[in-house]
């Protein structure tokens, strides 16, 4: 494959890796912790283990098993590092004024990892879909979400939760 660079480096010096490949890592807690520290949030470990190795990734590690395949003489595990996300910031967007815009800018520019939910209700022509498409192309705006409720009779939104009254 062209454009892919494979390097063999020391894990202790690495950070924000998207993929770490290792053998017999589940049996070595210290190595597993080092790999976890090197991974970016949402990054993966591809582990080659012995067939009889138990999958014990829940012991204090934020790892989830995405894929497990047992072959003739080894077991392959794809483990994903969990993403720590704070409570969402819910911002009500209206087409009548733009008082909400500074709040959106502040939420996106903050360094904390939380979902930002832009909500519009009862305004089917608000343009929020296009706005969110543009915002999501900006650096640091991967956590922006939308809740578009074109009709006002769908429910009431409080704290990111829709209640049907």
Automatic annotation (TrEMBL):
Stored InterPro entries: FAS_pseudo-KR (IPR049391)
Top-level taxonomic group: Eukaryota
Residue span, Fatty acid synthase pseudo-KR domain: 97-149
Pfam families on file: FAS_pseudo-KR (PF21149)
Protein name per UniProt: Fatty acid synthase pseudo-KR domain-containing protein
Highest classification ranks of the organism: Eukaryota, Metazoa, Ecdysozoa, Arthropoda, Hexapoda
């Amino acid at each position: 494959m062209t454009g892919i660079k494979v390097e063999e480096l020391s894990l202790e010096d690495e950070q924000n890796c998207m993929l770490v490949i290792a053998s017999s890592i589940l049996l070595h807690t210290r190595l597993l912790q080092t790999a976890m520290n090197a991974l970016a949030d949402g990054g993966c470990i591809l582990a080659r283990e012995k067939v009889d190795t138990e999958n014990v990734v829940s012991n204090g590690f934020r790892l989830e098993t995405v894929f497990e395949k047992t072959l003739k003489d080894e077991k392959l595990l794809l483990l994903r590092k969990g993403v720590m996300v704070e409570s969402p910031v819910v911002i009500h967007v209206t087409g009548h004024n733009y008082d909400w815009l500074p709040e959106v800018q502040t939420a996106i520019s903050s360094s904390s990892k939380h979902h930002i939910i832009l909500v519009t209700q009862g305004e089917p022509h608000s343009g929020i879909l296009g706005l969110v498409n543009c915002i999501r192309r900006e650096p640091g705006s991967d956590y922006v979400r939308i809740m578009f409720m074109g009709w006002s009779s769908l429910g009431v939104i409080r704290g990111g939760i829709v209640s049907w009254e």
